[in-house]
Amino acid sequence: MIIRGSFKAALLNWIPAVATTIALIIAWEVLVEVLDVKRWLLPPPSVIGAEIYGSFGFLLRHTQTTLVEILIGFAVSVGLAGLLASGIVWSRTVERTIYPLIITSQTVPIITLAPLLIIWVGTDIMSKVIVIVLFTFFPIVINLVSGLRYVDQEMVDMFRTLGASPWQIFRKLMIPSALPSFFAGLKVAAVVSVIGAVIGEWFGSSAGLGWLMKVAGGQFQTAKVFAAIVLLSILAMALFAAVVAMEKWSLRKYPPTANRVIRLGES
Amino acid sequence: MMSSASQQTNTGIDESVDSKNALLSVSSVGFDYENAAILENVNLSVTKGEFVALVGPSGCGKSTLLNLISGVLSVRTGHIRSGEHVSRTDRIGNVSYMQQKDLLLPWRSVATNSQLGLELRGGSRSESNAQVRKLAESFGLADVLNSMPWQLSGGMRQRVALLRAVLPDNPVLLLDEPFGALDAITRSTLQQWLLNVLDTSNKAVVLVTHDVEEAILLADRVLVMTANPGQIIGEVKIDFGDSSSDAEVTTSPEFMIFKRRILDLLRVQEIAP
Fold first, then answer.
1. Which pLDDT tens digit goes with each residue over A205-243?
2. Residues of A in Cβ contact (< 8 Å) with B116
3. Hey, of A156, A158, A172, which one would you mutate to test binding to chain B, going by the most B CBs within 10 A of its CB?
4. To the nearest whole percent, how much of chain A has pLDDT over 90?
5. Residue B140 lies in domain
6. Residue B57 has pLDDT above 70, yes or no
7. Please, how many CA atoms are within 13 Å of residue A232, restricted to the half-sphere of its CB?
8. Closest Cα of chain A to B11: distance in Å?
């Protein structure tokens, strides 16, 4: 009973998004027909749908390749970001040494690094993982550092008066306090990780949705390009949803101090 | 009933108390922040079982003094001793300190919030749990041990914070306006309760408050502070004898006399340039 109620509520939440998407798809279909746009220029959604349906197994294989790259890259990114953020928060020297390097790493256009990576590490999965890491570790580090840093000073003092060691303060106060910021970074990273994978594949690979888009585009198989885009979007949304689910779980376990969602437009 | 109130209006704070016997002694302590003197030549000693209240206007450095005693801040001049602990790094973690805000961790239950101090000292979980359970009854928290902080009223949260502060069982307890954020009715209930809870303890307690009545009700001695820089300018000993019941005390003539003396001391500093 309760489960059905909350399921219904969840469905209601999604109605605006789903309705908008359906309306846009219908408008696209109608406009392509009415304006008589060439299929190789812009295929209507029905043709893209048929393409996905027709070569589903083929598309799924390439989706899997991309997904594996993303998951490995994401895991490496989280680990690296955790280490860097902890170091930055722990010591001023580490902060002064590492922070400029992290910022600099983001000023270099990562697209230009991709061909270099192919030269250095080859066309196997490693080059893609590195590109994904370069794209995703930055939002995670930046958010994690601010989450760890903006912990309530009075809370820290309270821990100190109870005899806490720096490590205990870090583990029992700062990490739980930083979770909302950590997940904010993780959500950004989930979406850009897909971009990273496509760019990595674009410059040197023999599989994956990015590779597929490049090859199909070269052959004017526009419907196939769109099919790959659709699957990439679904992949990004699924990753995002997975992060949101983890966030919900962790915030239930470690509720932040202020846990009310404020909507200024509805007050 | 005769009251045995004594009062000293000059800076000579009761020196008959031998600071060697004191659990807590603060001698000629000064503190400044960004070239502004916050505290100057503060002397204070508190013996076993004694309850001392510090009253004064906002900004007189009352809370700073507690931060210095607890070891959160380092003194610039003078010395502080709490039991055998003299250096700041030695004192911190060995002086119980309840801040003004409850500072409960929102992700921990009442029980696990309360035992934080024991946990940080590396006590075993079951032992800490047993200690929490033992005191929970007298703190009125026995029924809410598994509740989360957001489910509690302000008064209950303060009691959890106090339980967390006293569980490590340090000889000195510092209270920084513990009931400042509560409504008048809850505050007066908790004041009575605090008296009963601390009645049998042998702790040296220092309470900081701007509520003169709270100071008179709870303390054995009230020290009056002045601001810019913070100094202790006078002391009023509080003694109601032992025949008045707690509820009657606040309306007794003695209470009014104590209040008058403290307010006079506070007023003197108000008029002074």
1. 888 999 999 999 999 999 999 999 999 999 999 999 999
2. 159, 162, 172
3. A158
4. 69
5. 104-169
6. yes
7. 24
8. 31
CATH of residue A194's domain is: 1.10.3720.10
pTM score? 0.82
Contacts for B161 with CB less than 8 Å, ≥ 6 apart: B98, B99, B102, B103, B104, B178
Interchain CB contact of A249 with B (< 8 Å): no
Residue B131 is encoded by which pair of tokens? 């200690």
State the complex-level ipTM.
Answer: 0.86
User: Does A226 reside within a domain?
Assistant: yes
Determine the distance in angstroms separating the CA of B171 from the nearest CA of chain A, rounded to an integer.
Answer: 14
**What is the helix (H) or strand (E) element at residue A22, kind and residue range?**
helix A2-34
Contact across the interface for B71 and A168, Cβ inside 8 Å: no
**In this complex, is the C-beta atom of A152 within 8 Å of any C-beta atom belonging to chain B?**
yes
Q: Of B251 and B63, which is predicted with more confidence?
A: B63
Kindly state whether A257 is in contact with chain B, defined as any CB-CB distance less than 8 angstroms: yes
Assess A25–B contact: CB distance below 8 Å, yes or no.
no
Residue B173: closest CA among B86, B42, B83: B83
Cβ of B95 and A161 within 8 Å?
yes
Q: Using a CB-CB distance cutoff of 8 angstroms, which residues of chain B are in contact with residue A162?
A: 93, 116-117, 120-121, 164, 168
State whether residue A164 sits within 8 Å of chain B by CB: yes
CA distance B113 to chain A (A): 11
| Contact (CB<8Å) A253/B168 | no
- pLDDT at position B201 is 79
Q: Is residue B1 assigned to a domain?
A: no
CATH number at residue B75: 3.40.50.300
C-beta of residue B3 within 8 angstroms of C-beta of residue B241: yes
Q: Which of B169, B204, B223 is the last residue of a domain?
A: B169
- Give yes or no for B125 touching A (CB within 8 A): no
pLDDT in tens, B135-154: 888 888 999 999 999 899 88
Residue A222 forms part of a structural domain: yes
> Phi/psi at B7 (nearest 5 deg)?
-145, 140
Residues B136, B159 within the same domain: yes
In order of A93, A178, B74, B165, the CA distances from A138 in angstroms are: 20, 16, 38, 40
Q: Provide the pLDDT for residue A205.
A: 83
| Chain B interface mutation, best of A154, A157, A162, A249, highest count of B Cβ atoms under 10 Å | A162
- Would you call A163 an interface residue with chain B, using a CB distance cutoff of 8 Å? yes
